[in-house]
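Sample pair:
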Amino acid sequence: MARLFGTNGVRGVFGKDLTLDLALRLSYALATYYREGPLLLAYDGRHSSPLIASVVKAGLNAMGIDVDDAGLVPTPCLQYCTKRLGYRGGIMITASHNPPEYNGIKVMASDGVEVPREDELKIEDIYFEGRFMQSKGIGRDERLGDAVDLYLQGIRSLVDVDRIRSKGMKVVVDLGNGAQAVAVPRLLNSLGCKVVTLNERIDGSFPGRGSEPTIDNLGELASSVKANGADLGIAYDGDGDRSIFCDEKGNIYTGDRSGALLVEHVLAKEGEEQRGKVKVVTPVNSSILIDMVAARYNAKVIKTKVGSVEVSREMVRASALVGLEENGGFMYARHIPVRDGAMSTALMLEALALMDEPLSSLIGRYKRFYQYKTKFPCTREQSSSIIDALKGTSSRVETIDGIKVWVDDESWIMVRQSGTEPIMRFYAESSSEQRLKQMVDVYVEKIRSLLG
């Protein structure tokens, strides 16, 4: 690994890129970075997670840092408890949606949000230069037993529990063999929902449908929703910070389409007195639909680079209420400005309860946008050349992250170099399916010719 941190924490194939030696040395670097505790540590359901957690905890303790262990919990649970209980920082052992052979280490600040990019560089410098502090003795190692209870209490405090309970909704949840299995069923039961679970057994091999929920692998969820006459279906990723929604007809929605409804619901909750004051943060590759919904409430939309860390940190900087990504990540700052699949679930249930309409009807009101994504093998040098070449193809371009080229007011393409792999990601969106195909054909051919 040329550098430690990628787009979202330190990740790699366990035993190859992410070794126990690396985990131990990183724990020394983290001890040096934090200087003192207490820290909160937790892990997801991957097979290697408890082992990595034990090594990281041992390294921190050996440097004199006190550590409380929350055990197996969703990433947002660790983040919420880090902030709520006043820890100096938090460490989560997870590779989120990556395949089973991967694992990772996410590092949180005292506000529960991943440390800023500049602090990642500080940690890397300490690690690579071996500038570890002197041990202050043996740190305390204790168990935090009520993390999930505290997390769910926090979520319920922000929604109209009585209104949700009054509807008695039936919900199918595809837990993806992941960490939300310890939290979401309890949340739904406490909200008076009739719950049907899929892939509820935590298993680091993710045998059900893989660790990342996508439109292509959620057929069982869609079928179960229809077969059970459910009001809603929800799927989560491996560490439970993202959620993908399915309506009562079995239609699966992309994160920014369901996110548009959540944005509208949250903005409406704020009331007229907050109109024009609320900010929404989203990456530059999110749908135009988000801008349209925000405009109805005169909310300011702030665009960032792709990545949840960029969105969360900009939310903190700008005191924004809402953040979201097209991959199903939704952040609600009144809870904590990080992705949280369980908080998103509670908000969606509240939206359905208050609007008293089915999800298909609510989302069906929004203008349809057609989207396309692909990727190309590409070095950083080739990526820079392609971005330079695309700058001259339109009078309207954005270079927040890679380059976004506007073809018209409702059509754009975007390319950016991956932060973790030698590939270039390609995105396109248009309100016209025909225009989308035309754009994709033209720009994909142009990129391929530039790649040779």
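The longest helix spans residues 433-451.
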